[in-house]
Amino acid sequence: MAGKIKAIRGMRDILPPETTRWQAVENAAREVFRVYGYREIRLPVIERTELFARSIGTETDIVSKEMYTFADRHGDSLTLRPEATAAVLRAVLENGLDKAAGVKKLYTLGPMFRYERPQKGRYRQFHQINCEALGSDAPELDAEVILMLSDILKKVQLGASRLLVNSLGCPGCQAEFKAGLSQFLMSKEGLCEDCQRRRVTNPLRVLDCKSVHCKEILTDAPVLKDYLCPDCAAHFARVLELLSRFGVTYEEQPRLVRGLDYYTRTAFEVVAVGLGAQDAVAGGGRYNGLAQELGGPELPAIGFAIGEDRLMEVLPENLGQNAGKTVFLAALGDPAKDQAFSLLQALRQEGIAAEMDFSGKSLKAQMSLADRLAADYTVILGDRELETGKANLRRMATGDQQEVSLSLLPMVLAGL
RNA sequence: GUGGGCGUAGCUCAGACGGUAGAGCACCGGGUUGUGGCCCCGGUUGUCGCGGGUUCAAGUCCCGUCGCUCACCCCA
To answer: Do the Cβ atoms of A43 and A85 come closer than 8 Å?
Structure first.
Protein backbone atom coordinates (compact mmCIF):
# COMPACT_ATOMS: atom_id res chain seq x y z
CA MET A 1 0.00 0.00 0.00
CA ALA A 2 2.74 2.36 0.86
CA GLY A 3 4.55 2.15 -2.42
CA LYS A 4 1.52 1.96 -4.65
CA ILE A 5 0.78 4.82 -6.95
CA LYS A 6 -2.53 6.39 -6.15
CA ALA A 7 -4.81 8.81 -7.94
CA ILE A 8 -3.71 12.34 -7.26
CA ARG A 9 -5.36 14.55 -4.72
CA GLY A 10 -8.83 15.69 -5.60
CA MET A 11 -9.12 13.28 -8.53
CA ARG A 12 -10.90 9.97 -8.42
CA ASP A 13 -11.95 6.90 -10.31
CA ILE A 14 -15.60 6.50 -11.07
CA LEU A 15 -16.30 2.79 -11.09
CA PRO A 16 -19.15 0.50 -12.00
CA PRO A 17 -21.91 0.33 -11.01
CA GLU A 18 -21.62 4.08 -10.40
CA THR A 19 -20.81 4.66 -14.06
CA THR A 20 -24.25 3.36 -14.99
CA ARG A 21 -25.78 6.27 -13.14
CA TRP A 22 -23.48 8.72 -14.91
CA GLN A 23 -24.51 7.30 -18.23
CA ALA A 24 -28.15 7.67 -17.29
CA VAL A 25 -27.62 11.34 -16.50
CA GLU A 26 -25.66 12.00 -19.64
CA ASN A 27 -28.15 10.15 -21.81
CA ALA A 28 -30.99 12.12 -20.28
CA ALA A 29 -29.17 15.38 -20.91
CA ARG A 30 -28.39 14.46 -24.51
CA GLU A 31 -32.00 13.60 -25.12
CA VAL A 32 -33.26 16.88 -23.72
CA PHE A 33 -30.64 18.83 -25.65
CA ARG A 34 -31.75 17.10 -28.80
CA VAL A 35 -35.34 18.21 -28.56
CA TYR A 36 -34.29 21.76 -27.80
CA GLY A 37 -32.08 21.82 -30.88
CA TYR A 38 -28.69 21.74 -29.18
CA ARG A 39 -25.79 19.92 -30.75
CA GLU A 40 -22.63 18.56 -29.22
CA ILE A 41 -19.25 20.23 -29.45
CA ARG A 42 -16.09 18.49 -28.23
CA LEU A 43 -13.20 20.58 -27.03
CA PRO A 44 -9.63 20.26 -25.81
CA VAL A 45 -9.23 20.23 -22.05
CA ILE A 46 -6.17 22.47 -22.27
CA GLU A 47 -6.18 26.03 -23.55
CA ARG A 48 -3.86 28.99 -23.50
CA THR A 49 -3.88 30.53 -20.05
CA GLU A 50 -4.75 33.90 -21.50
CA LEU A 51 -8.16 32.65 -22.64
CA PHE A 52 -9.30 32.10 -19.09
CA ALA A 53 -7.57 35.12 -17.64
CA ARG A 54 -9.34 37.37 -20.12
CA SER A 55 -12.76 35.78 -19.90
CA ILE A 56 -13.24 34.76 -16.30
CA GLY A 57 -11.57 37.80 -14.83
CA THR A 58 -8.19 38.13 -13.20
CA GLU A 59 -9.69 39.13 -9.89
CA THR A 60 -11.78 36.00 -9.55
CA ASP A 61 -10.65 33.20 -7.26
CA ILE A 62 -10.66 30.82 -10.18
CA VAL A 63 -8.03 32.72 -12.08
CA SER A 64 -6.06 34.13 -9.19
CA LYS A 65 -5.50 30.91 -7.30
CA GLU A 66 -7.34 27.88 -8.62
CA MET A 67 -6.00 27.17 -12.08
CA TYR A 68 -3.78 24.30 -13.12
CA THR A 69 -1.33 26.36 -15.09
CA PHE A 70 2.00 25.23 -16.48
CA ALA A 71 4.49 26.02 -19.18
CA ASP A 72 4.76 23.53 -22.02
CA ARG A 73 8.04 22.58 -23.64
CA HIS A 74 7.98 25.68 -25.77
CA GLY A 75 7.42 27.88 -22.79
CA ASP A 76 3.80 28.71 -23.60
CA SER A 77 1.57 29.14 -20.60
CA LEU A 78 -1.21 26.58 -20.76
CA THR A 79 -4.09 25.85 -18.39
CA LEU A 80 -6.32 22.88 -17.75
CA ARG A 81 -9.74 24.37 -18.33
CA PRO A 82 -11.45 25.44 -15.08
CA GLU A 83 -14.76 25.88 -16.90
CA ALA A 84 -16.12 25.39 -20.38
CA THR A 85 -17.76 28.59 -21.53
CA ALA A 86 -14.59 30.43 -22.50
CA ALA A 87 -13.39 27.44 -24.46
CA VAL A 88 -16.71 27.05 -26.26
CA LEU A 89 -16.63 30.67 -27.26
CA ARG A 90 -13.06 30.38 -28.42
CA ALA A 91 -14.01 27.42 -30.60
CA VAL A 92 -17.06 29.20 -31.97
CA LEU A 93 -15.07 32.27 -32.96
CA GLU A 94 -12.11 30.31 -34.24
CA ASN A 95 -14.30 28.18 -36.50
CA GLY A 96 -16.65 30.93 -37.55
CA LEU A 97 -19.69 29.16 -36.12
CA ASP A 98 -21.05 32.53 -35.10
CA LYS A 99 -21.67 33.28 -38.76
CA ALA A 100 -24.33 30.59 -39.05
CA ALA A 101 -27.98 31.55 -39.14
CA GLY A 102 -30.06 31.90 -36.02
CA VAL A 103 -29.19 31.02 -32.48
CA LYS A 104 -26.19 28.78 -32.14
CA LYS A 105 -27.02 26.06 -29.64
CA LEU A 106 -24.21 23.91 -28.34
CA TYR A 107 -23.55 21.52 -25.51
CA THR A 108 -20.46 19.75 -24.27
CA LEU A 109 -19.62 17.23 -21.55
CA GLY A 110 -16.36 16.64 -19.81
CA PRO A 111 -13.90 17.23 -17.02
CA MET A 112 -12.88 20.60 -15.62
CA PHE A 113 -9.98 21.28 -13.30
CA ARG A 114 -9.54 23.59 -10.36
CA TYR A 115 -6.78 23.51 -7.83
CA GLU A 116 -8.83 23.75 -4.67
CA ARG A 117 -8.80 21.95 -1.36
CA PRO A 118 -11.07 18.93 -1.93
CA GLN A 119 -14.12 18.35 0.20
CA LYS A 120 -17.58 16.88 -0.15
CA GLY A 121 -18.84 17.76 -3.61
CA ARG A 122 -15.64 19.50 -4.60
CA TYR A 123 -12.94 17.82 -6.61
CA ARG A 124 -9.92 19.04 -8.50
CA GLN A 125 -11.13 17.20 -11.53
CA PHE A 126 -14.88 17.48 -11.73
CA HIS A 127 -17.36 16.95 -14.51
CA GLN A 128 -19.79 19.30 -16.11
CA ILE A 129 -22.58 19.15 -18.60
CA ASN A 130 -22.46 22.50 -20.35
CA CYS A 131 -24.78 24.25 -22.72
CA GLU A 132 -24.38 27.55 -24.49
CA ALA A 133 -26.85 29.42 -26.69
CA LEU A 134 -25.23 32.17 -28.70
CA GLY A 135 -26.53 34.94 -30.88
CA SER A 136 -29.58 36.31 -29.14
CA ASP A 137 -30.38 38.57 -26.24
CA ALA A 138 -34.06 37.65 -26.24
CA PRO A 139 -35.48 36.88 -22.80
CA GLU A 140 -37.25 33.93 -24.36
CA LEU A 141 -33.86 32.34 -24.83
CA ASP A 142 -33.02 32.83 -21.16
CA ALA A 143 -36.28 31.17 -20.26
CA GLU A 144 -35.71 28.37 -22.73
CA VAL A 145 -32.32 27.60 -21.30
CA ILE A 146 -33.65 27.49 -17.76
CA LEU A 147 -36.61 25.38 -18.82
CA MET A 148 -34.24 23.00 -20.52
CA LEU A 149 -32.13 22.72 -17.39
CA SER A 150 -35.27 22.09 -15.43
CA ASP A 151 -36.28 19.35 -17.86
CA ILE A 152 -32.94 17.62 -17.49
CA LEU A 153 -33.06 17.73 -13.72
CA LYS A 154 -36.60 16.42 -13.71
CA LYS A 155 -35.66 13.62 -16.05
CA VAL A 156 -32.93 12.40 -13.74
CA GLN A 157 -35.28 12.58 -10.78
CA LEU A 158 -33.48 15.26 -8.81
CA GLY A 159 -35.23 15.55 -5.46
CA ALA A 160 -35.63 18.65 -3.38
CA SER A 161 -33.91 21.63 -4.94
CA ARG A 162 -34.27 25.36 -5.35
CA LEU A 163 -33.83 27.51 -8.43
CA LEU A 164 -32.35 30.89 -7.59
CA VAL A 165 -32.47 33.67 -10.16
CA ASN A 166 -31.24 37.22 -10.35
CA SER A 167 -30.40 39.87 -12.91
CA LEU A 168 -26.99 41.42 -12.89
CA GLY A 169 -27.92 44.13 -15.35
CA CYS A 170 -26.02 45.33 -18.40
CA PRO A 171 -22.66 47.08 -18.31
CA GLY A 172 -24.51 50.36 -17.98
CA CYS A 173 -26.68 49.75 -14.95
CA GLN A 174 -24.28 47.28 -13.44
CA ALA A 175 -21.63 49.98 -13.36
CA GLU A 176 -24.03 52.34 -11.69
CA PHE A 177 -24.92 49.73 -9.13
CA LYS A 178 -21.28 48.93 -8.52
CA ALA A 179 -20.62 52.59 -7.87
CA GLY A 180 -23.52 52.79 -5.45
CA LEU A 181 -22.54 49.58 -3.75
CA SER A 182 -18.95 50.67 -3.58
CA GLN A 183 -19.92 53.90 -1.90
CA PHE A 184 -22.02 52.00 0.59
CA LEU A 185 -19.27 49.49 1.35
CA MET A 186 -16.63 52.15 1.77
CA SER A 187 -18.76 53.81 4.38
CA LYS A 188 -18.95 50.66 6.48
CA GLU A 189 -16.60 49.42 9.14
CA GLY A 190 -15.97 45.85 10.15
CA LEU A 191 -16.15 43.94 6.88
CA CYS A 192 -14.07 40.79 6.85
CA GLU A 193 -10.57 40.92 5.46
CA ASP A 194 -11.53 39.45 2.12
CA CYS A 195 -14.40 41.83 1.68
CA GLN A 196 -12.25 44.84 2.46
CA ARG A 197 -10.14 43.84 -0.48
CA ARG A 198 -13.09 42.91 -2.65
CA ARG A 199 -14.95 46.15 -2.09
CA VAL A 200 -12.16 47.78 -4.04
CA THR A 201 -11.40 45.14 -6.64
CA ASN A 202 -14.82 43.61 -7.22
CA PRO A 203 -17.59 44.94 -4.98
CA LEU A 204 -20.18 42.52 -6.38
CA ARG A 205 -18.36 39.64 -4.75
CA VAL A 206 -18.96 41.13 -1.33
CA LEU A 207 -22.66 40.46 -1.80
CA ASP A 208 -22.40 36.73 -1.42
CA CYS A 209 -19.84 36.71 1.36
CA LYS A 210 -20.78 33.91 3.76
CA SER A 211 -19.54 35.73 6.86
CA VAL A 212 -22.49 36.37 9.15
CA HIS A 213 -21.01 39.67 10.15
CA CYS A 214 -20.70 40.85 6.57
CA LYS A 215 -24.22 39.62 5.88
CA GLU A 216 -25.46 41.75 8.71
CA ILE A 217 -23.76 44.83 7.34
CA LEU A 218 -25.21 44.06 3.94
CA THR A 219 -28.83 43.90 5.07
CA ASP A 220 -29.40 47.49 4.06
CA ALA A 221 -26.98 47.54 1.15
CA PRO A 222 -28.27 48.76 -2.18
CA VAL A 223 -30.18 46.12 -4.14
CA LEU A 224 -29.29 45.44 -7.73
CA LYS A 225 -32.89 45.31 -8.77
CA ASP A 226 -33.38 48.97 -7.89
CA TYR A 227 -30.59 49.93 -10.26
CA LEU A 228 -31.66 47.95 -13.31
CA CYS A 229 -32.22 50.14 -16.36
CA PRO A 230 -35.65 49.91 -18.03
CA ASP A 231 -34.39 47.47 -20.65
CA CYS A 232 -32.77 45.16 -18.14
CA ALA A 233 -35.76 45.32 -15.83
CA ALA A 234 -38.12 44.45 -18.69
CA HIS A 235 -35.85 41.64 -19.81
CA PHE A 236 -35.76 40.15 -16.34
CA ALA A 237 -39.51 40.52 -15.85
CA ARG A 238 -40.13 38.69 -19.11
CA VAL A 239 -37.84 35.84 -18.11
CA LEU A 240 -39.61 35.44 -14.79
CA GLU A 241 -43.00 35.63 -16.46
CA LEU A 242 -42.09 32.80 -18.79
CA LEU A 243 -40.74 30.65 -15.99
CA SER A 244 -44.00 31.07 -14.15
CA ARG A 245 -46.02 30.29 -17.21
CA PHE A 246 -44.34 26.94 -17.58
CA GLY A 247 -44.66 26.08 -13.94
CA VAL A 248 -41.02 26.45 -12.96
CA THR A 249 -40.81 27.59 -9.37
CA TYR A 250 -37.97 29.97 -8.69
CA GLU A 251 -36.75 32.26 -5.97
CA GLU A 252 -35.49 35.73 -6.72
CA GLN A 253 -32.14 35.98 -5.04
CA PRO A 254 -30.88 39.57 -5.20
CA ARG A 255 -27.54 38.55 -3.67
CA LEU A 256 -26.76 35.97 -6.32
CA VAL A 257 -23.79 37.32 -8.27
CA ARG A 258 -21.74 34.20 -9.11
CA GLY A 259 -18.04 33.94 -9.32
CA LEU A 260 -17.22 34.77 -12.90
CA ASP A 261 -16.87 38.33 -14.06
CA TYR A 262 -18.46 37.89 -17.44
CA TYR A 263 -22.07 37.48 -16.39
CA THR A 264 -24.64 40.08 -17.44
CA ARG A 265 -28.38 40.20 -16.91
CA THR A 266 -29.84 36.80 -16.03
CA ALA A 267 -27.90 34.69 -13.54
CA PHE A 268 -29.23 31.54 -11.96
CA GLU A 269 -28.26 28.63 -9.80
CA VAL A 270 -29.85 25.36 -8.71
CA VAL A 271 -29.04 24.26 -5.18
CA ALA A 272 -29.94 20.81 -3.90
CA VAL A 273 -30.75 19.97 -0.33
CA GLY A 274 -28.71 17.34 1.43
CA LEU A 275 -25.41 18.17 -0.20
CA GLY A 276 -23.48 19.84 2.56
CA ALA A 277 -21.59 23.02 1.93
CA GLN A 278 -21.12 22.56 -1.80
CA ASP A 279 -24.76 22.47 -2.77
CA ALA A 280 -24.89 24.15 -6.16
CA VAL A 281 -25.58 21.41 -8.70
CA ALA A 282 -25.99 23.75 -11.63
CA GLY A 283 -25.40 27.38 -12.39
CA GLY A 284 -25.33 29.72 -15.30
CA GLY A 285 -26.23 33.01 -16.76
CA ARG A 286 -26.02 35.41 -19.62
CA TYR A 287 -22.70 36.69 -20.85
CA ASN A 288 -23.40 39.25 -23.53
CA GLY A 289 -20.00 40.88 -23.56
CA LEU A 290 -17.75 37.88 -23.50
CA ALA A 291 -17.35 37.35 -27.25
CA GLN A 292 -16.11 40.88 -27.70
CA GLU A 293 -13.89 40.50 -24.70
CA LEU A 294 -12.24 37.68 -26.60
CA GLY A 295 -11.81 39.76 -29.72
CA GLY A 296 -14.93 38.58 -31.48
CA PRO A 297 -18.04 40.35 -32.70
CA GLU A 298 -20.98 41.28 -30.53
CA LEU A 299 -22.53 37.94 -29.67
CA PRO A 300 -25.00 37.91 -26.81
CA ALA A 301 -25.20 34.49 -25.21
CA ILE A 302 -26.40 32.49 -22.25
CA GLY A 303 -25.49 29.12 -20.85
CA PHE A 304 -25.28 26.88 -17.84
CA ALA A 305 -23.17 24.14 -16.32
CA ILE A 306 -24.42 21.13 -14.41
CA GLY A 307 -21.99 19.74 -11.83
CA GLU A 308 -22.26 16.03 -12.43
CA ASP A 309 -20.27 14.93 -9.41
CA ARG A 310 -22.56 16.83 -7.10
CA LEU A 311 -25.70 15.86 -8.92
CA MET A 312 -24.83 12.17 -8.57
CA GLU A 313 -24.76 12.56 -4.81
CA VAL A 314 -28.43 13.39 -4.63
CA LEU A 315 -29.90 11.30 -7.41
CA PRO A 316 -31.67 7.98 -6.78
CA GLU A 317 -29.38 5.05 -6.09
CA ASN A 318 -30.91 2.86 -8.79
CA LEU A 319 -30.87 5.44 -11.57
CA GLY A 320 -30.46 3.73 -14.93
CA GLN A 321 -30.01 0.27 -13.40
CA ASN A 322 -32.95 -1.29 -15.24
CA ALA A 323 -30.87 -3.13 -17.81
CA GLY A 324 -32.33 -5.76 -20.10
CA LYS A 325 -32.32 -9.45 -19.29
CA THR A 326 -29.14 -11.40 -18.83
CA VAL A 327 -28.64 -15.05 -19.70
CA PHE A 328 -25.98 -17.26 -18.18
CA LEU A 329 -24.82 -20.43 -19.90
CA ALA A 330 -23.71 -23.16 -17.54
CA ALA A 331 -21.80 -25.84 -19.39
CA LEU A 332 -20.47 -29.17 -18.12
CA GLY A 333 -17.59 -30.78 -19.90
CA ASP A 334 -15.63 -29.73 -22.96
CA PRO A 335 -18.11 -30.70 -25.67
CA ALA A 336 -20.84 -28.78 -23.88
CA LYS A 337 -18.56 -25.81 -23.31
CA ASP A 338 -17.79 -25.70 -26.98
CA GLN A 339 -21.45 -25.82 -27.87
CA ALA A 340 -22.26 -23.22 -25.22
CA PHE A 341 -19.71 -20.84 -26.66
CA SER A 342 -21.51 -20.94 -30.00
CA LEU A 343 -24.80 -20.34 -28.28
CA LEU A 344 -23.23 -17.49 -26.31
CA GLN A 345 -22.29 -15.71 -29.50
CA ALA A 346 -25.64 -16.42 -31.10
CA LEU A 347 -27.41 -14.78 -28.16
CA ARG A 348 -25.15 -11.76 -28.23
CA GLN A 349 -25.83 -11.30 -31.91
CA GLU A 350 -29.50 -11.15 -30.98
CA GLY A 351 -28.71 -8.32 -28.60
CA ILE A 352 -29.14 -10.47 -25.51
CA ALA A 353 -26.58 -10.03 -22.73
CA ALA A 354 -25.07 -13.48 -22.31
CA GLU A 355 -22.24 -14.82 -20.16
CA MET A 356 -20.57 -18.10 -19.39
CA ASP A 357 -17.67 -19.39 -17.37
CA PHE A 358 -14.51 -20.44 -19.19
CA SER A 359 -12.61 -21.79 -16.21
CA GLY A 360 -14.33 -25.14 -15.77
CA LYS A 361 -16.18 -24.49 -12.53
CA SER A 362 -18.57 -27.06 -11.11
CA LEU A 363 -22.20 -26.63 -11.98
CA LYS A 364 -22.87 -25.47 -8.47
CA ALA A 365 -20.19 -22.81 -8.79
CA GLN A 366 -21.54 -21.76 -12.16
CA MET A 367 -25.05 -21.44 -10.78
CA SER A 368 -23.70 -19.37 -7.98
CA LEU A 369 -21.92 -17.14 -10.45
CA ALA A 370 -25.08 -16.80 -12.52
CA ASP A 371 -26.85 -15.68 -9.40
CA ARG A 372 -24.28 -13.05 -8.58
CA LEU A 373 -24.23 -11.75 -12.10
CA ALA A 374 -27.96 -11.25 -11.67
CA ALA A 375 -28.80 -13.50 -14.59
CA ASP A 376 -32.49 -13.71 -15.34
CA TYR A 377 -32.12 -17.11 -17.02
CA THR A 378 -29.56 -19.85 -16.93
CA VAL A 379 -29.17 -22.41 -19.68
CA ILE A 380 -27.79 -25.70 -18.42
CA LEU A 381 -25.89 -27.68 -20.97
CA GLY A 382 -24.15 -31.01 -20.33
CA ASP A 383 -23.61 -34.33 -22.07
CA ARG A 384 -27.23 -35.34 -21.50
CA GLU A 385 -28.50 -32.20 -23.22
CA LEU A 386 -26.12 -32.63 -26.11
CA GLU A 387 -27.48 -36.12 -26.64
CA THR A 388 -31.14 -35.14 -26.58
CA GLY A 389 -30.55 -31.83 -28.30
CA LYS A 390 -32.51 -30.06 -25.57
CA ALA A 391 -31.09 -27.79 -22.90
CA ASN A 392 -32.53 -26.95 -19.53
CA LEU A 393 -33.67 -23.37 -19.33
CA ARG A 394 -33.95 -22.18 -15.75
CA ARG A 395 -35.70 -19.04 -14.67
CA MET A 396 -33.60 -17.80 -11.78
CA ALA A 397 -36.20 -15.83 -9.90
CA THR A 398 -38.52 -18.80 -9.48
CA GLY A 399 -36.34 -21.82 -10.10
CA ASP A 400 -38.71 -23.08 -12.78
CA GLN A 401 -37.02 -25.16 -15.42
CA GLN A 402 -38.05 -26.39 -18.83
CA GLU A 403 -36.43 -28.18 -21.71
CA VAL A 404 -35.90 -26.24 -24.87
CA SER A 405 -34.50 -27.51 -28.11
CA LEU A 406 -30.99 -26.15 -28.65
CA SER A 407 -31.73 -24.79 -32.07
CA LEU A 408 -34.68 -22.82 -30.75
CA LEU A 409 -32.91 -21.33 -27.75
CA PRO A 410 -31.89 -17.98 -29.23
CA MET A 411 -35.40 -17.46 -30.50
CA VAL A 412 -37.06 -18.51 -27.27
CA LEU A 413 -34.77 -16.33 -25.17
CA ALA A 414 -35.26 -13.37 -27.44
CA GLY A 415 -38.98 -13.71 -26.90
CA LEU A 416 -38.90 -13.89 -23.11
C1' G B 1 -4.08 28.92 2.18
C1' U B 2 -6.55 27.90 7.52
C1' G B 3 -8.96 24.59 11.11
C1' G B 4 -11.35 19.79 13.08
C1' G B 5 -11.78 14.33 12.59
C1' C B 6 -9.59 9.87 10.86
C1' G B 7 -5.67 6.24 8.81
C1' U B 8 -5.86 -1.89 11.42
C1' A B 9 -7.72 -7.75 5.86
C1' G B 10 -10.67 -6.27 -0.84
C1' C B 11 -14.98 -3.47 2.14
C1' U B 12 -17.19 -1.74 7.10
C1' C B 13 -14.97 -1.66 11.57
C1' A B 14 -13.41 -3.82 16.91
C1' G B 15 -8.88 -3.96 19.48
C1' A B 16 -10.27 -1.13 28.55
C1' C B 17 -4.28 -0.10 32.30
C1' G B 18 1.52 -1.07 26.17
C1' G B 19 2.39 -8.11 26.12
C1' U B 20 3.29 -9.69 19.98
C1' A B 21 -3.87 -8.83 15.56
C1' G B 22 -9.76 -9.95 15.41
C1' A B 23 -15.24 -9.78 13.71
C1' G B 24 -18.85 -9.20 9.97
C1' C B 25 -19.20 -8.89 4.78
C1' A B 26 -16.65 -10.39 0.35
C1' C B 27 -13.76 -14.33 -1.98
C1' C B 28 -12.51 -19.92 -2.63
C1' G B 29 -14.02 -24.95 -1.38
C1' G B 30 -17.28 -28.64 0.96
C1' G B 31 -22.26 -30.32 2.96
C1' U B 32 -25.82 -31.81 -2.75
C1' U B 33 -21.14 -37.93 -8.11
C1' G B 34 -25.35 -32.09 -12.77
C1' U B 35 -28.60 -27.02 -10.18
C1' G B 36 -27.95 -20.39 -7.40
C1' G B 37 -30.22 -17.38 -3.52
C1' C B 38 -31.13 -19.35 3.05
C1' C B 39 -28.33 -22.45 6.52
C1' C B 40 -23.94 -25.24 8.34
C1' C B 41 -18.53 -26.46 8.02
C1' G B 42 -13.63 -25.32 6.43
C1' G B 43 -10.01 -22.08 4.01
C1' U B 44 -7.20 -17.51 1.86
C1' U B 45 -6.06 -12.29 2.87
C1' G B 46 -2.59 -7.83 6.86
C1' U B 47 5.22 -4.53 6.23
C1' C B 48 -1.79 -2.26 12.05
C1' G B 49 -0.27 4.78 6.37
C1' C B 50 5.19 5.95 6.62
C1' G B 51 9.69 7.41 9.56
C1' G B 52 11.86 8.11 14.13
C1' G B 53 11.69 7.96 19.66
C1' U B 54 10.44 5.82 24.73
C1' U B 55 10.30 0.56 26.49
C1' C B 56 12.43 -6.01 27.97
C1' A B 57 8.02 -5.35 24.73
C1' A B 58 4.35 -0.30 20.66
C1' G B 59 -1.64 -1.25 16.52
C1' U B 60 -1.75 0.81 21.57
C1' C B 61 2.50 6.19 24.37
C1' C B 62 5.54 10.64 22.18
C1' C B 63 7.43 13.46 17.86
C1' G B 64 7.47 14.13 12.78
C1' U B 65 5.59 13.11 8.00
C1' C B 66 2.22 11.62 4.18
C1' G B 67 -2.70 10.56 2.92
C1' C B 68 -8.03 10.67 3.41
C1' U B 69 -12.18 13.35 5.09
C1' C B 70 -15.32 17.44 6.72
C1' A B 71 -15.56 22.64 7.28
C1' C B 72 -13.76 27.79 6.17
C1' C B 73 -12.83 30.09 1.48
C1' C B 74 -14.79 29.55 -3.38
C1' C B 75 -17.89 27.31 -6.78
C1' A B 76 -20.18 22.93 -10.63
So the answer is: no
